[in-house]
Amino acid sequence: MIGKIMHMHDTLYVLGLKHTLLSIGQLCLKNYKVIFEKRSCKITNETNRQVVATILMYEKRMYMLKMQLVAIKCLKTTLDPIWMLHKKLGHLNFNSLCGLHKLVKGMLTFSNLFDTFCERCIFGKQHREKFLHHQHHS
């Protein structure tokens, strides 16, 4: 695969894994053709019919594709610690969360939460009218 470039998008990065695993199913879904022969494997781009890689089978019936990673991008979402605690503690009100640092050693301190509100908490606190009971007369 010298000099040929193959871009793989939407892949998973596994921390601590010594080798990159390439999913045959993912290759097929991304318009690549994978052909296994007696002692080799061939990956072909179906769009332009170009052979992207020919891989020899090594011991233990493994196919080792030598490739260089150009860029690894790992996206991560972050949640504000106060919101994470609010949700983990069953939507505990924000004033009580601010006072937790007095009760729990090593707890983060929070302040200025007067304008903070949780939409789910607001909907959960809405009250409805009681159902009227009809008396049945026979």
Give a structural overview.
The protein has 138 residues and is of the alpha+beta class. It folds into two domains: 1-76, no CATH class; 81-124, no CATH class. The protein is built from four helices and four strands, in the order αββββααα. It has a four-stranded antiparallel beta sheet. The longest helix has 10 residues, at 94-103. The chain is elongated, with a radius of gyration of 29 Å. The model has no long low-confidence stretch (mean pLDDT 76).
Low-confidence stretches: none
Give me the strand/helix succession: HEEEEHHH
Strand order of the largest sheet: 1-2-3-4
Q: So what's the oligomer here?
A: single chain
Report the mean per-residue pLDDT as an integer: 76
What fraction, in percent, of the residue positions are helical? 10-25%
The radius of gyration is 29 Å
Total number of domains: 2
Shape: elongated
Report the β-strand fraction as a percent range: 15-25%
- Biggest beta sheet summary: 4 strands, antiparallel
Cα separation of the termini: 89 Å
What structural class do you assign from the helix and strand content? alpha+beta
Number of helices: 4
Instruction: Tell how many strands the DSSP assignment holds.
Output: 4
